[in-house]
Design a protein that fits this description.
- With 302 residues, this protein is α/β, with parallel strands linked by helices.
- The chain has 13 helices and eight strands.
- It has one domain: Rossmann fold.
- 37% of the residues lie in helices and 15% in strands.
Length: 302
């Protein structure tokens, strides 16, 4: 697949060298690897509909402090390959990709920083490779199949239905206007919105934007349900792992009830620290607050 050419305005906001790993299924996964190679490792896992661009400010900041900052784009997003076959995008497949990629890097003492879909993918890796993970940071995410009712936002509910995603997220490419912009507290600049949209210029590149909402486990027998149960039931094994819960006060997708439920599942976690007025996309709405709390957490858990 051809390499995505980013606009100059995006390169100015995202001044990082591109790295690629070819997965066993032949798809190329793009990732960032910034900072000294022997630095303490921070792995940033994005959600929907974003890509590693969302962590740009944190990567610049922590790489300058001497951390090794790694941020992949899941297949179908950002500068990674974008298979047009919608059937490619299943939770099982993306879990496999994440495990394969992180295993190949042979990382140790990782701090996993996760938002939205990054939570289920990163926590599956954590449960299977606990010896490599030092800390967890969970921001506006979920893994709950049976212990917390899954109340879908109306937009997400519509997106799970046949035809809606193909029209709204596929043909009209509105995931960034309807989800990213409306679920952010700040008005994103034209340059930032252009950057998020840049990898999805062609209709054939938008299969993941259509399918990821459909990966949400909406029924007990949904294809994702058993995998989510496995993550959910495994949380007990992570109770002693240093964990930070950061949450947007006004998240329309995952309300504060979700953050409080995380605390019941991981009672030793710090937080939930609620960021006033922030919505779903914390690193866009409150990057300074996220950095401040992450600094404190990293220092306290050295």
């Amino acid at each position: 697949m051809a390499t995505v050419v980013l606009p100059e305005s995006t390169r100015a906001l995202y001044p990082f060298a591109a790295h690629y790993y070819t997965l066993s299924d032949g798809k190329r996964m793009h990732y960032l690897d910034e900072g000294p190679p022997n630095g303490e490792v921070l792995v940033f896992l994005h959600g929907y509909p974003t890509w590693s661009f969302t962590y740009r400010a944190l990567i610049v900041y922590y790489a300058a402090l001497g951390y090794r900052c790694i941020a992949p784009d899941f297949i179908g997003f950002g500068l990674s390959d974008k298979p047009a076959d919608k059937a490619y995008h299943t939770l099982r497949h993306h879990i496999h990709n994440t495990l394969e990629y992180l295993n190949v890097l042979r990382l140790r003492d990782i701090t996993l920083i996760m938002e939205d879909w990054g939570g289920p993918l990163g926590l599956t890796y954590t449960l299977r490779r606990q010896e490599t993970v030092k800390r967890l940071v969970l921001m506006n995410t979920w893994v709950f199949q049976d212990t917390l009712p899954n109340r879908l936002h109306p937009l997400v509910n519509w997106a799970t239905r046949p035809g809606f995603g193909e029209l709204i997220f596929g043909r009209f490419n509105l995931a960034f206007d309807l989800v990213l912009q409306r679920w952010s507290n700040r008005q994103l600049s034209e340059a930032v919105l252009m950057a998020y949209k840049a990898p999805f210029r062609d209709l054939r590149e938008r299969a993941a934007l259509i399918q990821f909402p459909r990966m949400i486990s909406t029924t007990p027998d949904h294809p994702s349900a058993q995998l989510m149960r496995e993550i959910e039931s495994g949380l007990d094994a992570l109770k002693r792992m240093p964990t930070l819960l950061l949450w947007g006060e006004a998240d329309p997708a995952f309300p504060l009830q979700t953050a409080e439920h995380w605390k019941t599942m991981l009672p030793r976690a710090k937080g939930p620290i609620v960021l006033p007025q922030a919505r779903h996309f914390l690193v866009e709405d409150a990057p300074e607050a996220v950095t401040r709390h992450l600094d404190q957490f990293l220092e306290a858990t050295r």
